[in-house]
Amino acid sequence: MVTFTKLYVRSFELDSVTIFWAIEDISKEDDIYAYSMELLKSESYNGPYDKVAGPFFNIFQYRDPLNLEDHKNRNIYYKIKVTDIRTGETKVEGPTAQLPEPDLYAMEILRQEDMLFRNFIGRRCYTFPRKTFGQICICVQPQQMRGQRANCKTCYGTLYLGGFNSPTAAYIQFDPNARSTQLTPAINHNINFTTCRLIAYPPLNIGDLIIDPENHRWRVEQVQVTKRLGYDVHQECQVKEILRGDIEYELPVLDDIKKVDDIFDWRNRVNPTTFEYKEKPNYEGKKPDGVL
User: Fold this and answer.
1) 213 burial class (0-12, 13-18, 19+ CB within 10 angstroms)?
2) CATH H-level superfamily of 4-96
3) pLDDT in tens, 28-40
């Protein structure tokens, strides 16, 4: 099987990006044309990934045309899938995206931010990246690119099949939100806006969905990013709570978000002893208390 040495994305044009890759030298006993390659891409680091091009042989770059105006707030991730046509063995390299490389300061900021949110101020939530390309849903009117059904369970109002990409767990801090009511002739809507913050990963964009441990579902309205030499290190997001009964509440979450075992550092959940070394009761009941 081939071994990759490089896989990166560059773009110096307005209507496309170019993906480059390289492999180690193939011996004389082997055959480069025995390896079939396919290019995959997704809007989410965790996928799902769709096939873009291939299979092709002995080619090490590909120009992917896309409308960057529609994706300027998105990171497009690419993978290379290699198949040995003689044995059927497969190998996937990547993902990669057109992102700057972090320096040591940025990496240290990310490490400390991750420790802060994971152990002290963040709560475990799920983020669902909204799809902006792919298979158009059957509910979409082709002429106007509008959904014909308000509560389509196939695209969840995004116009694309599946609606959202694979979820990613993240530790997010939410500010207390001011609660208000919007009066309409038919019904009174409770409108809740707030601010949340998290580390640079997963990258959030307008329209993405956040689900907190109480199953409150929030739509990202605005994202403010802090950068270190072009590399994202922190995100501040304006979010709006989705009304109960909206189609986004039909999106399944097959996990117990409130389960905290093996997630948080244990020092964040033990009860400290007093200065007289009189131990307080351990409500977890699994491990002895320690001195912080």
Assistant:
1) middle
2) Immunoglobulins (2.60.40.10)
3) 788 888 889 999 9
